[in-house]
Amino acid sequence: MQGSYTPEGAKLDFTTDMSYGDYLGLETLLEAQHPLSPDHNEMLFIIQHQTSELWIKLMLHELNAAREQVKQDELSPAFKMMARVSRIMEQLVHSWDVLSTLTPSEYTSFRPFLANSSGFQSHQYRLVEFILGNKNEVMIRPHRHKESVFQQVDAELRRPSLYDEAIRLLARRGLPIDNSALERDWTQSYQWNASVEAAWLTVYQNPSERWDLYELAEELVDLEDSFRQWRFRHVTTVERVIGYKRGTGGTAGVSYLKKVLDTQLFPELWKVRTSL
Fold first, then answer.
1. Which end of the chain is more exposed for a tag (fewer CB within 10 A), N or C?
2. Span 140-162, mean pLDDT?
3. What per-residue confidence (pLDDT) applies to 4?
């Protein structure tokens, strides 16, 4: 009879055992969507951003671990973690394809219900930027109203970035690095340094002599490449949906996002390609 088939051996009673839903906390997860408007399309907007935050949580898990591995000179595990982050960013790039099905008319129907809330206020995204070296003290201010979150982003602001730890590794491996690049104000965004470029150039000129550093350089480039694509897809999706309106959080919207595209996280790794 159709519908009567039961996979042989499948457990059917979870009265006393942990089920799939229990393990994943699905009851809490699937009840976390609370549209504020009567508009059908708001659910898409909420789920898009909630799933992005879950992926970003995993990115932070991997980036923090990768930074620690680089500090310990354990590069092989770091490579796997960084590669995973690049693939997560690819996943996030494709997620904009779903949000781009939201037309300007549809978004306008529920946008007023967002009030001043905005992705600009995502503390997890800010942590990713800080770990990758794009530091800005102003960006921690939207989190002052939540002490635990504020402490988290403030602590990351003051911590060496993943790239800072990579530069320290170059110095530990005997490559000459200016002290200004090794002990600096970690709350400031990293700026190009001639000695760091010279060190990476040495690595690229003789890959076989420092193969793990060569691979580290390429993993970092892959990471920034993926991050750029994620940000670019964000800009084009926002422009498609709201044009050049100001963002709900008060930013200039697309104009602000386009300026962010010019940010270069690992400048020497891009410049060295011209020097080779």
1. N
2. 95
3. 64
In the chain, helix, strand, coil percent, each to 5? 65, 0, 35
> pLDDT tens across 201-235, in order?
999 999 999 999 999 999 999 999 999 999 889 88
> What is the spatial distance between Cα 37 and Cα 8, in angstroms, rounded to a whole number?
46
User: How far, CA to CA in Å, does 68 sit from each of 160, 165, 182?
Assistant: 11, 9, 16
Q: Residue 161, Cβ neighbours under 10 Å: how many?
A: 23
| pTM, to two decimals | 0.92
Compute CA distances 200 → 1, 39, 166, 170, 195, whole Å.
68, 53, 11, 8, 9
Token readout for 172 is 């530990």
Distance CA(104)–CA(116), nearest Å, equals 18
Sign of CA dihedral 205, 169, 124, 261: negative
Cα first-last separation, the chain = 70
d(CA 41, CA 100): 12
Q: To the nearest whole percent, how much of the chain has pLDDT over 90?
A: 81
Q: Which among 163, 48, 159 is positioned nearest to 96, based on CA atoms?
A: 48
Q: Please give the average per-residue pLDDT across 38-60, as a whole number.
A: 97
H or E, element range at 186: none
- 197 vs 271: CA distance, rounded Å: 8
In whole angstroms, what is the distance from residue 212 CA to residue 111 CA?
49
Given a cut of 80, whether residue 253 has pLDDT beyond it is: no
Per-residue burial over 177-212, b if 16 or more Cβ lie within 10 Å, else e, is bbeebbebebeeebeebebbbbbbbbbbeeeeebee
Return the HEC string of 15-34: CCCCCHHHHHCHHHHHCCCC
